[in-house]
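Problem: given the chain below (206 residues), write out its structure.
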Amino acid sequence: MPRVFVQGSPAEYYPRHAPEAGRGAVRRITETGEEVLHKPCRDVTEFGPDLAALIDDMFRTMYVAEGAGLAANQVGVGLRLFVYDCPDDNGVRHVGHIVNPVLEPAPAGRPLLDDVEGCLSVPGATMSVPRPERAVVHGQDKTGAPLTIEATGYFARCLTHETDHTHGVLYLDRLSKRQKRDALRQVTAHRDEVLSRRATRATELS
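Solution.
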């Protein structure tokens, strides 16, 4: 079985970082409480060099922050778009971007799986969040061509997490009040360390 899928298609070889990252610039990652993260994003309607440049920046920013996915509103742009570089539970790597993602509803009665989840916009916090074991996302690529990505396990968690972002939903919104307070305490304790590590990596990747 191929060890890497790029935009849903198998690849014989793929570099450590997506080539887009080499063209991109690091952008500041927005944090919980900032308005752009908490409202639904707009559909992408223009496919061209500006969109491609945004995707380049998002890939570079994601790698600097050591993330598995990053949505556009996490770099302050309220558009329905995310990038990802994420393993599934079998260790297969999945890399790509999805514009205007639409998540298929999970089948009724299918149990959700609890697993630990973090978010680059909630720096330093991890919490257990219930998610479907399988996800199917329909959307477009940066040229506007239709795209469907199917995922299981951790990669499915990544796709549902990032699609949530495009609706203005953070994983914090899926927690109880007590759990959310716990997550925010973790941010208070670890945020400075996380941001310092990102700053160091930004220099190393330049």
